Amino acid sequence: RCGRCRAPPRLSPQRLRAAVHYTVGSLCRDVAEDKEVQFSKQTVAAIAEATFRQCANPGKYIKGCFLILCRHAKRSTITTEDVKLLARRSNSLLNYITQKSEELTSSNMELKEKKRKKSSASKGGRMPGEQEAAVTENEDSNMA
After folding, report:
1. For labelling alongside 75, which of 58, 120, 138, 139 has CA 20 to 30 A away?
2. How far is Cα 51 from Cα 39, in angstroms, rounded to an integer?
3. Please, which pLDDT band fits residue 33 given cuts at 50, 70 and 90?
4. Residue-wise DSSP of 23-72
5. Residues 6+ apart with CB under 8 A from 65
6. Looking at the whole model, is its pTM more than 0.85?
7. How many CA atoms lie within 13 A of 63 on its CB side?
8. What's the alpha-carbon Rg for the chain, to the nearest Å?
9. Any idea what the CATH number is for the domain that residue 40 is in?
10. What is the helix (H) or strand (E) element at residue 138, kind and residue range?
11. What are the UniProt keywords, alphabetically (predicted)?
């Protein structure tokens, strides 16, 4: 990941093609063991190339859809709602994206809460609820 923006590293087309070829080779090897068949190197390469080409086109389509959505909404940021909008035709994909989005939101909220507690503790101050309790105790002791 990039140190500044935490974005995943960009893969060159050659590295991406090699990764697809490796994955297809692994899958073919698993099928070969399971079904007791063999795949030639040329077959694996043909399947990998077809897979790579099939995956490249939807990627360009999706990128174009995101650009259209952002222009229409007069925004420059793609949100999770934009992603859900494009995934709405596939219930399983939409459910997966929604689940992951909720997990990320929950995780981010927990991190923010931890940072908030840590920063208030490092300042030597009490949490807002603790301050109210201390004021109430002081008022009670003064009344007695």
Report:
1. 58
2. 16
3. very high
4. HHHHHHHHHHHHHT----HHHHHHHHHHHHHHHHHHHHHHHHHHHHHHHH
5. 86
6. no
7. 6
8. 26
9. 1.10.20.10
10. helix 128-143
11. DNA damage, DNA repair, DNA-binding
The phi and psi torsions of 76 (rounded to 5 degrees) equal: -115, 0
Q: Residue 71 is which amino acid?
A: R
Using alpha carbons, select from 50, 49, 32, 51 the residue that is nearest to residue 40.
32
User: Are 93 and 85 contacting, i.e. CB atoms less than 8 angstroms apart?
Assistant: no
Torsion on CA atoms 100, 106, 110, 113, rounded to nearest 10: 140
Structure tokens at 139: 């008022």
Place of tokens 């596939």: 90
Confidence at residue 136, expressed as pLDDT on a 0 to 100 scale: 46
User: Within this chain, do residues 62 and 99 fall inside the same structural domain, yes or no?
Assistant: yes
